[in-house]
């Protein structure tokens, strides 16, 4: 039974529960107040009756003492008995009016006996057979004579009963009003909470795969500071979920684009390989002198595919740098690396004059020499590939704010402002068709940036017609190869 009640209670709404709690509390308060009030009333009325009895007896005592008879003020349904107690046993005097005595006078006699020995007024409440509850008072009229008066207590009981009835009705009504109105008020007060639950349910039914942003927020302002605090926390949480979802959706989007781009880029050389293979087969049968030419092209396409895959693999490993360590760090001289790259450039791109600006004789720092050389090569190759022949290219090494800097600049046409932020994206080329003709896949700058970041550094780009400058900054200390964030955002 108690278990069932408890289960039912648990199922109740919070507002109802609080209202019920309030009701129980009020019931206790009403009970205490009612009991105190009733007790006080009963005591007060009893005291009044006692005073009335005493006053009556004073007048009657006088009449007994003076005339030996019981005259004077008499009340309806009161009883009066006069006893002679001279010899110790109370002797009841015959009353002039038989109505003065009840049927059963035992209690009167007992009280008269007690009074004869007590020598002071005695008060008792007795139940008189056939007459109900009575208040008895005994007093000595004169030596040897005792008067016992009895007043009915029905009136007191009636009054007290009425008081209890009035209290029960008013308290009951007050209790009901309190519970019903309190429940309504509490429900209204707690409404913002149910609204929030509603909002949360809205999120549950919202398809998160559809769009990254949650269309729901809790906007209603009511319910006091606590609810307001909860509302703010709730909305902040939604904001946070929103942001996380947006980041994830963007990453997914990039990944998809990357996979699509990579497949596309790989397909081009693969098609060429197929084409040259067919040509080679045809030439083997019909024009043997063409064979070597086709074979060489076939090799070149395969090599191009190889470079592309190398770049992709390197990027993937740099992305996962937290688990792997793709760099082989040694102390190396950046100036020497730049000189080597410049020499190689002069040999391979003779149509682009290169100047090496004067700088420090040597600049030693901990880095992966091969990878930094790859960065320099990528930037220098770009300066040659994406500028017309004869364009001046310059390289400079310096120390700026405790970091080593290599600047690769060219006097080419530059990169349009709209593309500047995106040239570091994977597979991004300003002029797709032309770059591809030059054999570019759009991974060079992405690889360079990932490598420099893996060294704890960064690449900056400034470009205007006639001056495109890539600045590679590598900190001398604190090169944090694995500390950098995997460049997932560049996928
Ligand atoms: P890859 O380097 O993979 O062979 P790519 O050179 O086209 O191909 P990135 O090195 O990433 O790719 O360069 C991205 C794009 O930025 C290039 O396609 C080119 O349009 C532009 N770009 C890069 N360097 C320069 C430069 N020095 N001058 C003008 N445009 C440049
Ligand atoms: Mg390039």
From TrEMBL:
Its cofactor is a divalent metal cation. GO terms for molecular function: calcium ion binding; phosphorelay sensor kinase activity. Keywords: Kinase, Membrane, Phosphoprotein, Transferase, Transmembrane, Transmembrane helix, Two-component regulatory system. GO terms for cellular component: plasma membrane. Residues 261-478 form the Histidine kinase domain. Pfam families: HATPase_c, HisKA. The keyword Hydrolase does not apply. It catalyses: ATP + protein L-histidine = ADP + protein N-phospho-L-histidine. The chain crosses the membrane at residues 20-41, 163-186. SUPFAM superfamilies: ATPase domain of HSP90 chaperone/DNA topoisomerase II/histidine kinase, Homodimeric domain of signal transducing histidine kinase. The keyword Cytoplasm does not apply. Residues 187-246 form the HAMP domain. Its EC number is 2.7.13.3. It is found in: Cell membrane. InterPro entries: HAMP_dom, HATPase_C_sf, HATPase_dom, His_kinase_dom, HisK_dim/P_dom, HisK_dim/P_sf, Sig_transdc_His_kin-like_C, TCS_sensor_his_kinase. PANTHER family: SENSOR HISTIDINE KINASE TRCS, SENSOR HISTIDINE KINASE YKOH. This is histidine kinase. It comes from Streptomyces caeruleatus.
């Amino acid at each position: 039974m108690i278990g069932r009640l408890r289960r039912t209670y648990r199922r109740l709404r919070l507002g109802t529960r609080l209202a019920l709690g309030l009701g129980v509390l009020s019931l206790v308060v009403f009970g205490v107040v009612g009991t105190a009030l009733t007790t006080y009333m009963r005591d007060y009325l009893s005291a009044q009756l006692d005073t009335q009895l005493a006053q009556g007896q004073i007048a009657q005592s006088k009449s007994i003492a003076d005339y030996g008879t019981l005259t004077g003020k008499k009340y309806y349904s009161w009883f009066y008995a006069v006893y002679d107690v001279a010899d110790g046993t109370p002797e009841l005097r015959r009353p002039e009016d038989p109505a003065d005595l009840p049927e059963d006078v035992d209690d009167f006699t007992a009280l008269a006996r007690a009074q004869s020995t007590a020598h002071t007024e005695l008060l008792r409440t007795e139940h008189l057979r056939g007459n109900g509850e009575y208040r008895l008072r005994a007093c000595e009229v004169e030596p040897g004579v005792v008067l016992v008066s009895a007043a009915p207590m029905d009136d007191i009981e009636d009054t007290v009963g009425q008081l209890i009835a009035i209290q029960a009705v008013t308290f009951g009504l007050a209790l009901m009003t309190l519970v019903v109105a309190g429940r309504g008020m509490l429900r209204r007060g707690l409404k913002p909470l149910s609204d929030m639950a509603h909002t949360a349910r809205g999120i549950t039914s919202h398809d998160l795969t559809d769009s990254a942003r949650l269309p729901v927020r809790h906007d209603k302002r009511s319910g006091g500071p606590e609810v307001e605090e909860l509302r703010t926390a709730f909305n902040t949480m939604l904001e946070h979920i929103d942001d996380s979802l947006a980041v994830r959706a963007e990453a997914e989007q990039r990944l998809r684009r990357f996979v699509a781009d990579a497949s596309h880029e790989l397909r081009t050389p693969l098609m060429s390989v197929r084409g040259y293979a067919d040509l080679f087969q045809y030439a083997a049968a019909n024009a043997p002198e063409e064979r070597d030419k086709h074979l060489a092209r076939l090799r070149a396409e395969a090599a191009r595919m190889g470079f592309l895959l190398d770049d992709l693999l390197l990027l993937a490993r740099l992305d996962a740098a937290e688990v792997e360590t793709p760099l082989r760090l040694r102390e190396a001289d950046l100036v020497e690396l730049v000189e080597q790259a410049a020499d190689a450039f002069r040999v391979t791109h003779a149509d682009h004059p290169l100047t090496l600006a004067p700088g420090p004789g040597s600049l030693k720092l901990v880095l992966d020499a091969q990878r930094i050389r790859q960065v320099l090569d990528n930037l220098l190759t770009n300066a040659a590939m994406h500028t017309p022949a004869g364009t001046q290219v310059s390289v400079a090494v310096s120390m700026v704010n405790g970091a080593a800097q290599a600047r690769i600049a060219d006097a080419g046409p530059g990169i349009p402002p709209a593309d500047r932020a995106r040239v570091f994206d994977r597979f991004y080329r300003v002029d797709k068709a032309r770059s591809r003709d030059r054999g570019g896949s759009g991974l060079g700058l992405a690889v360079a940036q990932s490598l420099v970041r893996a060294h704890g550094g960064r690449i900056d780009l400034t470009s205007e017609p006639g001056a495109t400058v890539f600045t590679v900054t590598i900190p001398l200390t604190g090169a944090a190869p694995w500390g950098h964030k995997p460049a997932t955002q560049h996928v």
